[in-house]
Design a protein that fits this description.
14 strands; binds zinc ion; four-stranded parallel sheet; alpha/beta
Length: 447
Amino acid sequence: MSDDPIHIHDTLTREKRQFVPDDPKNVRMYVCGPTVYDLAHIGNARPIVVFDVMARLLRHVYGADHVTYVRNITDVDDKINARAHERGISIRELTEETAKVFHDDIAQLNALPPDHEPRATENIDAMIAMIETLVEKGNAYEAEGHVLFNVPSMADYGQLSGRKRDEQIAGARVDPAPYKRDPADFVLWKPSDPEKGEPGWDSPWGFGRPGWHIECSAMSRSILGETFDIHGGGLDLIFPHHENEIAQSRCAHGNDVMANYWMHNGYLMAEGEKMSKSLGNFYTVNELLDEFPGEAIRLLLLKTHYRQPLDFTKEGLADAKRELDGWYRLKADGGEVPAGLVDALCDDLNTPGAITVLRGATNDPSALTAGANFLGLLQRNPDDWFKWQPKSAEGGLTDAEIDAKIAARKEARANKDFATSDAIRDELQAAGIILEDGAGGTTWRRG
Ligand SMILES: [Zn+2]
């Protein structure tokens, strides 16, 4: 289908490079996952969908059994502690509830589950072991119950973000703690106070909890090894999170690289502005799914190249829905992925190019369908797609409620109770449901 090798724009070297995996029998990708304290917003959904397409492409090129895709869940974080306290529930209740809604929401966006989804709280031992190594090697030190990474101990710190030393200091978590040897030093471990409800674990440095950055270094090491192929995430993670992951992993293992390719998706705005609750343009995936089917959200996210900024609008979402309506009318099985689609994806995951190929394939419905499937689109059957309606729709009846009313109408007709059967028909009609009686029974569609 495609002879072109994959090329990836690598944030670290700042160039588009041919992708050569360390081991083509085990292509390894790590992507930073959610911190589960609140519902995912549409900006959080962008890397989920982008790297889902990347994982699909890698599985296509190297074989489904030869790709290991890891996306973590951060379930220990001060934002989690604060939110659980605010809501008067346990940390565990909050993280379980939030992780469940996250999984349900992104399943609606047709994001396939990663091969591994490690949780920070289940990998504390690996984090402690890595911190101990960093202390032994002289890259980290203990001070007042904290363990800090000493930034000047790494000669070439800062290569990923390209930040100069004064910018590193300004950008580091603004925390002018007196125990820091250097203002750019960052936390690997910090003390927890059980009386304040802070979660903690026993460690060589007392009862405490890990910093955020060490989680990903330890979990990627546990599952993928000291070095791996691709590390992904949003642009906002380059500094300090990914810069510090590199510092921790390279210094602990004595390697020149952590990941061979660094991929970062661009920023997302909503309705032309930075998303903010006060502007009314702060969209959670969960509430968008009440208004639009998940596939429309997925298509809209893929219409912009992952490295470009994306302006997410409800108007754009309605356009994406209409485009999918057209494709669903054509849906047909048994085709081959249209020429050029995989080539577009191999060119630094050019999803807008792949969508252009789909638009050119509408005269060959089975090829259109196969190509859309490759991108994780057209995954429903057309009947279900056209029955979908927003939660707010007038007379918003669920499919199950409509089916139950049709069954009641059938029973009324069998009993020759035509007044009741007509009343049910009128009620459904008022709700925009059109019934068609045929030899095989009654079918319905939303008008
Ligand atoms: Zn991470």
